[in-house]
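User: Hello! I'm new to structural biology and keep hearing that structure can be predicted from sequence alone. Could you demonstrate with tRNA U-34 5-methylaminomethyl-2-thiouridine biosynthesis protein? Please show me the input and the output so I can see what each looks like.

Assistant: Of course. The first part below is the input, the amino acid sequence of tRNA U-34 5-methylaminomethyl-2-thiouridine biosynthesis protein. The second part is the output, the predicted structure written as tokens.
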Amino acid sequence: MSRVFHLAPKRAEDPPEPAGGGIVAGYLSPHPPHLIYADNPPQNEPRSTGGWEVLRWAYDEVRRRVRELNPDVLVVHAPHWITMVGHHVNCVPHPRGTSVEPIFPHLFRYHYDFRTDVELAEALVTSFADHGLVSRAMREEGVRVDYATIGALHMVNPRWDIPVVSISANNNPYFYAEAELTQMETLGRATRAAIAQTGRRAVLLASNSLSHLHFDRETELPEDMSREHAYNNDQYRADMALLETVRSQPSKALRAAIPEHIAASEAETKSGSLTWLLSALDWPSTTGDVLGYGTIIGTGNAVIEWRP
């Protein structure tokens, strides 16, 4: 079954990229709440003794690089803002509230307060429609922002001093055996066109893990690293095969490798965030820079940078 619903086909020509604008980098930015819990930021209520340091050190490097890039906006696609019909864009100018992870509320109760780049958000809605996608502007004040959006944004920019645009995941594939990523390619092209049209310098974040098979029993101390390990060797090997492709081949090779990873593992790449990211970057001819990999409750998580 198709994952999205098409409007009447329209051919949208991507506008030329203005000087100084465009997508300057993209990151695979996993969002497990444990990373923020371990980071102990003032916005999160629960306190920890640390944990998952290697992945958090990878995010330290992302923060340094993003500071150097000095983007106008962070654009995030997150698998837990689930919309069953079409692609939604958060157009609320000033989202504020408390985001709670429903399975781990004892780890993640995060008070957020940030600014949306409304002009770009509205341009994305229009561009998605122009590319034949069903799209909606989410303008309801007070709608809770999901933890996958907050998790990626906090880990990349805990100062929250860069405007944000967040995009929902049309998550039909989670409910069917066959993933369809073609729509995410279109969504990526539409995202690139809107960013070029508005002249923004944008950093893109794909907020998903890799393999997603996890423990079903939590340790008494959640950050007990003696209990943290790959849950299943086949899942781990699927992650390593994907990462070897990332490290050794131009990103176009991932067009075939991502579906293979989905078929071989309980993959969160099925949500389409990674395909959206690479399509928006126009499938760079370079390899990705793997900054870190680690498990979180057994799921595989990698922090990776691509430059256009």
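User: So the tokens describe the shape?

Assistant: Right, they're a compact way of writing down the 3D structure. Reading them back into a model, for example: The CA atoms of residues 231 and 298 lie 5 Å apart.
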